[in-house]
Amino acid sequence: MTPEAAPTVATVLEEATRRLREAHVPDPLREAVALLALVLNTDRGGVVARKPDPVAPVDVARFAELLTSREGRVPLQHLEGRAEFRGLDFEVNGDVLIPRPETEDLVEAVLEAGLKEAARVADLGTGSGCIAVALAVARRSWQLAAIDLSASALRVAARNAAMHGVAERVTTIERDFAVVPDHEHGIYDAVVSNPPYVPEEDWRGLQPEVRDHEPRIALVPGPTGNEAYAAVARAAAVMLRPGGLLALELGWKSEESVRAIVVGAGFQEPATRPDLQGIPRVLTARKP
After folding, report:
1. Phi, psi of 130 (to 5 degrees)
2. CATH architecture observed for domain 93-286
3. DSSP E strands: which ranges in 67-215?
């Protein structure tokens, strides 16, 4: 009796693509290639180049575990343990939001705002630390405060800061950003935030990868989706120096209400910038 031949990369990919398609995973072939690249310790091009090659039994077993998780809509980034943001790798897990491309526009807005060379910047609700770390990497003389209520998220942020060599300039602070201690009054040149902005009624309609595997507290602030914006604006009004910058990521339909919140908190010169789809994605304003 001859042993059964090991499956090839091509046959493993074909079966995985079928299963992911039946599980309604978007872009199933791309996802299957990414999972197999993780197992084979190569990139997507390496997987394609090895299509005729057999897959070792130990790799077949590992791939089967990952495939089952992805069928259950565990995010690919959680299985890889990483996500890319502005060309940088960030550790991610279930304690933090996965960085989104839209948030890169928020970082760009702060970098282009003409802050002084030795600026102090606070990132409210830092999560993975992607905003604070990206700013620190881009501006080597800036000091960043990465503030979050979640101790587990801050541990991820601290590891990401260390990974990119900016730990000495990114200070993690565990606190509710709505409650500003006296020693943080009027000391920042900019406050930046990608706050929770999903209304409660919209949360159940999110993709399972987001709804079931990312922290709800980082997604949903309350019934309207605007509750965190109000808290950030009030905090920033206290934390900023005169003339300081407030920069916020916007939900896809929140521009008008957030503009009113920011102006109501005393900020001036509100302006928005669109994403690639033309949706207002970032709002900036100045403290008088």
Report:
1. -60, -40
2. 3-Layer(aba) Sandwich (3.40)
3. 82-85, 88-91, 120-124, 143-148, 170-174, 188-193
